[in-house]
Amino acid sequence: METIEKLFSFIDEYSEEVAKEHNITYLEGVLETLNTWLDGDRKPSINELSKEEIRKAIQLAILKGMRKSAQPNHQMTPDSLGLLLGYFVEQFYEKEFKSDEKITVLDPAIGTGNLLLTVMNLVGDKIEGTGVEIDDLLIQLAAASGELEKQPISLYCQDALENLLIDPVDAVICDLPVGYYPNDEVAKQYEVKSSEGMTYAHHLFIEQSLKYVKDGGYLFFLVPDHIFESEQSSILNKLITSKAWIQAVVQLPEELFSNKAHAKSLFILQKKNDTGEAVKEVLLAKVPNMKNIKALELFFAKVRKWKKEQKKF
Ligand code: SAM
């Protein structure tokens, strides 16, 4: 059996067992299993485990748990999306990573941590992570996964749209929660606040992220495909134009989403600073079907060519 399968079986069997014994959900059972593993009370009998093997086995167990219960907005970000986003992080921070500099990255809706950990594992030990999450089961899963993968992540369990006690970060990555934000008292402090009715949470998250990233820092968002077609989009547009330079809008392959209505794009911004300038040309691209290797290679070549042509990098 492959290592990941073996490790998944270990997590799965124990999670089923504790869920039954304590009458808790399978996902709570996964958390219990990871914590028991961390305490050393029950460990998988596999000698060498890489960070990615641990992440992938945990991802499988969480996917199984979420299939039973989670709402679309709480869904974990699968590694197909995480790896694509991570590729762009690598391109934008190539200079820092080559010179072995670490960067700080915030995920203000960290969920289970799968997106942030996929990116952290991809670039090697070059990211210090910070995560915010409102759901205490998900953030505990993120904490246990980060610890097992020995990745440094500081976590805050709170509403990410309220004030955050974190220092400005080099970059933000986020699979944005989509939909209306229920707390109008908080929303009214934002420029993107809708003049009528509730404001979109994903718009508020973009504004909040721009506040906590350093000048000149990059932000990588997974956004709904039709983000600029809603009745609230003009006010979002205004905010973005005043505070950031759009770098890229990359449409992701539809087959990565179980429902076309939930399809997403990768939206990359740079927070304005005094010395920078807008890119010569915003990258507008569509990722081909991930099974078409030739087309994927052409896509990555196009991205690298575009990047070279932007003298700012
Ligand atoms: N990237 C995450 C992962 O890999 O598990 C999944 C992100 S999921 C699409 C969006 C997350 O935003 C959910 O975990 C949800 O609980 C969280 N969320 C929604 N509203 C929030 C808020 N106001 N503050 C903090 N987290 C919030």
Please give a structural write-up.
Helix 1 crosses helix 3 (51-69), helix 2 (26-39) runs parallel beside helix 7 (136-148) and helix 3 packs antiparallel against helix 6. The longest helix has 20 residues, at 3-22. The chain has an eight-stranded mixed sheet. It folds into two domains: 2-68, DNA polymerase, domain 1, CATH 1.10.150; 79-310, Rossmann fold. Helix 6 links the parallel strand 1 and strand 2. The chain is globular and about 55 Å long. The mean pLDDT is 94. The protein has helices at 3-22, 26-39, 51-69, 79-92, 94-98, 114-123, 136-148, 184-187, 201-212, 233-243, 293-309; strands at 103-107, 127-133, 153-157, 169-175, 213-224, 244-251, 264-271, 283-286. It contains eleven helices and eight strands. By secondary structure, the protein is α/β, with parallel strands linked by helices. The structure holds S-adenosylmethionine. Residues 73-77, 109-112, 114-115, 132-135, 138, 159-161, 175, 177, 201 line the site of S-adenosylmethionine.
